[in-house]
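Appendix B, Record 12. Input sequence as logged:
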Amino acid sequence: MFAKILHGQFELRQMFWKYGVWGVSLITFIMYLFRIFLVHRLNGLRLGEYYSKVFSFINMDNTMLFLTISYFTLLAFLTFYSIILVLGVWRSSAEYDKSVWLRHIARILILVVVFFAYKIVL
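Logged structural output:
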């Protein structure tokens, strides 16, 4: 399925809404839940401060280890999926011949969706 998304083999509407907006929103929502749990356990520290100054595998409890591994795994998956998605929407919109405007709007909006997904989870 990732190969079909990468090569833009679905129609633009399906690529943009189903795999783009809804797919990225689902991954972002799950990551945001893990981020809330992490921030709750950090007692006022920001995530960046914690991982740059306090973080240590040696003194970590199991819950924090699970949340950290899950969060970074989902972040890696979101990055992988976003790259595949942007390339797929770009290729699918290149074959869209109904409207030049919709072609370019889809390209711009998928970049906006990915940008806001990262803004929410980081």
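The chain has a mean pLDDT of 94.
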